[in-house]
Design a protein that fits this description.
The protein has 708 residues and is α+β, with helices and mostly antiparallel strands. It has three domains: 272 residues, alpha-galactosidase from lactobacil brevis (Beta-galactosidase, Chain A, domain 5, Distorted Sandwich); 300 residues, TIM Barrel (Alpha-Beta Barrel), CATH 3.20.20; 98 residues, Golgi alpha-mannosidase II (Immunoglobulin-like). A hairpin with a 4-residue loop joins β3 and β4.
């Protein structure tokens, strides 16, 4: 709901209120919902601004920085008008949220140049989230350059901890909290993608609650947090201004990506609201509310060393275990027997596929499995037919030796000819094999950023515009295909990609111990149905750690379940264990994939982590607890369950696991389960622990409301 009285605009969701003084460009309030009708006069002339610019008396970081035709950077935007739009405007060329929600439009004009700044605030009442975007229109008679245009600025008063989700390849989205104090801290990427190192989702935690910020964008980003000497904490989020200089001719405009902001009393509530927003207003298409299939991917089972017989043997074993989808990973095309060559040659390797991709796909389907395919469309190998015929397609700087990562270069996706090529060849791959699933990979960062005729200050963003054009066309052409994104794991896990891909590969690190943390960190902003999570072989190929098969399954159920190993090498007993796992998952898939998600314990700072999925009516839940080590002489850990009805009585039973002899069953009140601290007696009785030295310990619990 948006209400306007004079120049005071009130944006409300069921649990929050945002108040803006439009003519002063000020925030008067944002936080827990206000029940009073007004009385904001005493808060006028607030130091909390909705945008900031160079040229006045504000010397903190600016949300808007323009290079004028006279070479100066000063602007003096003044209020022009505001209006309430009944429909949310689209952002040309960029992904953004969708759905019903009124939008506030604010317009400001620089009187000297007539350049206009527009700010948009869209209220999504079903998730307590507000989407914010900004736009510059050059109404002057000369060209200008946009040097920075943040998507959102929010000034907060008081002391805050700045929480980021950082890491690297194989260790994505580790939660880190900092008390910034007086000074400036920023969380950013200059890699041409959102990156493994720093996700664009950040939080500001204060006494009154938690503010969450995210960006609907997949390229270079920057989240800036500045605390000044007057007790103000400024948050900016948007495109990174690193190497950014966007030319605007008279009459042209530039739109920044959309940002989202949410307030909640605590982290758990914030995650639930962010999940609801992503599920309803970011994920789209035929798979939005559709249960995801259980898949098997051959990558860690075979890597590049496979043929038709080996693939079919894996598929037969997987079918016997109840798996629904087979995904053929890297190595099926060109002369691709290693990572040195053939990227861009998206024609069948007839020898490895037993006569062609369609032939293999048809045989997989004849076994009763759907077929999926891996592609890496944005990349090119120098040893490829594509490079030999079109070396100009590669991203490289003339006269300089290019930087090679994973033995490959990137395509110049800022070039429309390259975009059209990618759309054409990848569409052909999907069509000729009849894929029902596509894994879209991206295995290196940008370097040597150059495109003929493209200003260097515009290259990063023009690449993203080209990328979005390509994935937009392909996903629209194949609306029934389930797309999963990947970037060397979770390096481009962001809201921009989730507007096209219904799920994302969370990390290349499939070790259950590490995945507890990676999935925990990811879950702060992104729902579990977006997180690809696989059971892989042990010892784990990334870490060398070993965990029982049941443990790996329990952890993988925290996302979209898959298997990534050579199941044809399993014993009959192991196939039987997997068959029971898959049958259980299918029976409870809707709850696990779409239930309200809660984190248990603290995966980063305590011995216990885990998760819990709760049905909308609170009548049932599934919880997984994970203890990372056995410490002698210390009592067994306790867990507080979450999301239940305090007054209800629940029956709690453990899922039967092959590595535990003793099952657990008891009844307890919802309030007791959430506040009493249930002791995990017998958690260390895993009979396979000795064969998996250093393993973690997990139990899964089914919680059902007792009938009155």
């Amino acid at each position: 709901m948006i209400r306007k009285k004079g120049q005071v605009v009130r944006l409300e969701t069921p649990n929050t209120t945002l108040v803006i003084k439009a003519d002063k460009a000020e925030y008067l309030y944002y936080g827990k919902k206000l029940t009073s009708a007004g009385g904001f006069e005493a808060f006028y002339d607030s130091p909390r601004k909705i945008f900031s610019q160079f040229g006045g008396c504000d010397y903190t970081e600016y949300s808007v920085l323009l290079e004028n035709a006279d070479g100066g950077f000063s602007t003096a935007f003044e209020y022009s008008k505001s209006k309430i739009l009944t429909e949310k405007p689209e952002i040309a060329g960029l992904p953004s949220s969708y759905g019903e929600g009124k939008t506030l439009e604010l317009k400001y004009i620089d009187p000297s140049t007539k350049v206009c700044l527009y700010l948009y605030y869209t209220v999504f009442e079903d998730s307590d989230v507000i989407a914010v975007s900004s736009r510059i229109v050059n109404n002057s008679k000369k060209e200008i350059f946009v040097r920075r245009l943040s998507s959102l600025q929010m000034d907060l008063m008081g002391e805050y901890a700045f929480v980021t989700f950082e890491g690297m390849w194989g260790r994505e989205r580790q939660k880190i909290s900092r008390n910034v104090g007086k000074g400036v801290f920023y969380n950013d990427s200059k890699k041409g993608m959102t990156s493994h190192e720093r996700n664009p989702f950040v939080m500001a935690e204060g006494k009154e609650g938690v503010f969450g910020f995210n960006l609907v964008y997949s390229g270079n980003h920057k989240e800036l947090f500045e605390c000044d000497g007057y007790g103000r904490a400024r948050v900016l989020t948007g495109i990174n201004d690193f190497m950014f200089r966007w030319k605007l001719l008279p009459g042209e405009e530039f739109a920044a990506p959309e940002a989202v902001v949410c307030f909640a009393p605590d982290e758990d509530a914030l995650s639930c609201r962010m999940h609801a927003f992503v599920s309803e207003h970011i994920i789209r298409g035929k798979w939005k509310k559709r249960e995801r299939p259980v898949l098997i991917n051959n990558w860690e089972g075979t890597y590049f060393d496979f043929n038709e017989e080996k693939i079919l043997n894996i598929a037969r074993a997987a079918k016997k275990a109840g798996v629904e989808l087979f995904v053929l990973d890297d190595g099926w095309f060109g002369k691709r027997d290693n990572d040195l060559c053939a990227l861009g040659d998206w024609f069948d390797n007839v020898e490895k596929t037993g006569g062609g991709l369609k032939n293999l796909a048809d045989k997989i389907r004849a076994l009763g499995l759907d077929f999926g395919i891996w592609v890496e469309p944005e990349m090119i190998s120098e040893d490829s037919d594509l490079y030999r015929s079109h070396p100009n397609f590669a991203m490289k700087i003339p006269g300089r030796e290019p930087t090679r990562m994973r033995n490959q270069l990137m395509l110049n996706m800022a070039d429309e000819k390259v975009q059209n090529y990618v759309v054409r060849v990848i569409s052909d791959v999907i069509s000729r094999c009849g894929a029902s699933y596509v894994k879209w990979d991206f295995n290196r960062s940008m370097s040597d950023c150059y495109g003929k005729g493209i200003a260097q200050g515009e290259y990063f963003h023009r690449y993203m515009l080209g990328y979005y054009r390509v994935v937009g066309k392909i996903t629209k052409k194949f609306p029934f295909v389930l797309f999963e994104g990947c970037a060397g794991g979770g390096g481009r896990f962001d809201l921009g990609n989730l507007c096209y891909f219904q799920q994302y590969w969370t990390s290349d690190d499939t070790d259950a111990r590490e995945r507890v943390k990676i999935q925990d960190g990811t879950s702060y902003a992104y729902p579990q149905v977006t997180m690809g999570s696989h059971v892989s072989a042990c010892p784990n190929h990334q870490t060398g750690n070993s965990n029982p098969l049941e443990t790996r399954f329990n952890v993988a159920c925290g996302g979209v379940l898959g298997y990534e190993l050579d199941m044809s090498k399993f014993s009959e007993e192991e196939i039987g264990v997997v068959a029971e796992q898959v049958a259980f998952y299918k029976q409870n898939r809707k709850l696990l994939q779409f239930g309200e998600y809660h984190r248990l314990g603290d995966a980063f700072d305590s011995a216990l982590g885990g998760y819990m999925a709760v049905s909308k009516d609170r009548s049932q839940a599934i919880a997984v607890v994970a203890v990372n080590a056995r410490v002698i002489g210390v009592a067994e850990p306790t867990v507080l369950f979450k999301g239940l009805l305090p007054s209800a009585v629940y029956e709690v039973t453990s899922r039967k696991q092959s590595n535990y002899e003793k099952d657990i069953s008891f009844t307890a009140g919802g309030d007791m389960l959430m506040n009493g601290g249930y002791m995990l007696r017998g958690i260390f009785d895993d009979k396979e622990a000795s064969a998996n030295s250093g393993c973690i310990y997990t139990r899964m619990f089914m919680i059902k409301k007792c009938k009155n």
